[in-house]
Amino acid sequence: MKYLPPLKIILCAPRGFCAGVDRAIQIVEIALKKYGAPVYVRHEIVHNKYVVDNLKKKGAIFVEELDEITNTNAPVIFSAHGVAKSVPIEAKNRNMFFLDATCPLVSKVHVEAMRLHSQGYEVILIGHKGHPEVIGTMGQLPNGAIKLIETIYDAKNFTPNNQDKLAFVTQTTLSIDDTAQIVNILKQRFPSIKQPQKEDICYATTNRQEAVKQVAKNVDALIVVGSSNSSNSKRLVEVAERSGCKKSILVQRANEINWEYFDKIKTLGISAGASAPETLVDEIIEAFSKRYKIDVNLSITATENISFNLPKELRSK
């Protein structure tokens, strides 16, 4: 019998799907059952290739812009990341039947930005340029009404029109620690800056980062299961590295694992981004079980029981 070296695996909890992702995927799946294929989805419903590929097999067609869709009665679904105001306007002008899968916590940021703007505030958005959530949030306000700050450098060099009428909102999937540094600089420079009544970084992002912080300091290596275009997954890798686990990487599937990288490790942490299904975590644990005698442990730092309502068109009568 082949000797397998021992490996202690510590699973971060919470990990994987959040309520907003779960809701978005359900919207596509229920729409396919109710209306039949095809169902169009503007942008990846969530940032995970495995999820997107599975929905494609069921009849979902993914596009980046509405102009890629020819006239159709099929449902058109907006992704969990949210869209600019111009998108539903275009859909209405084309008489499209659309369903909005925007995460309610992203919608909260949209409402917040619009409310601040209507009260005469110059709005700052802390986030990553080009991310669909950022494009959607900035697209709630007229051009130039919201300014993007990505880095500490940006925060130090930002010049407002009126520092006494300044407010900020944030992308929901940022690093808690990085964002705190940027916010502290803005508060030092502009003491009267108005901040969100409730934290914009979502509960799932916060919980997953805290779970990784606890595990990272006790393992030789850490894997975050997630896609390379997933903001919250990439932040988890950064959090792990800063928390003391320099051997931390992002992996989409078990077949991507570079086994030399994990040579001679005794302990391994595993987490998953908010858009990564648990089946991919199981797949990676299974891959390690073929090379190590594994002992799987759970590290629980929070419990989650949040769920969001489906759009009224999809709720069962």
What is this structure's SSE topology?
Layout: E1 6-13, H1 19-35, E2 39-42, H2 49-58, E3 60-63, E4 76-78, H3 86-93, E5 98-100, H4 104-118, E6 122-126, H5 132-138, E7 146-149, H6 152-157, E8 166-170, H7 176-189, H8 203-216, E9 221-225, H9 231-242, E10 248-251, E11 267-272, H10 278-289, E12 293-300
Parallel strand pairs: 1-11, 1-12, 2-3, 2-4, 4-5, 6-7, 6-8, 9-10, 9-11
Compressed to H and E, one letter per element, the order equals EHEHEEHEHEHEHEHHEHEEHE
Write the CATH fold name of the largest domain: Cobalt-precorrin-4 Transmethylase, domain 1
* Shape estimate: flat
- Stretches where pLDDT is under 50 for at least 5 consecutive residues are none
Can you give the helix content as a percent range?
25-40%
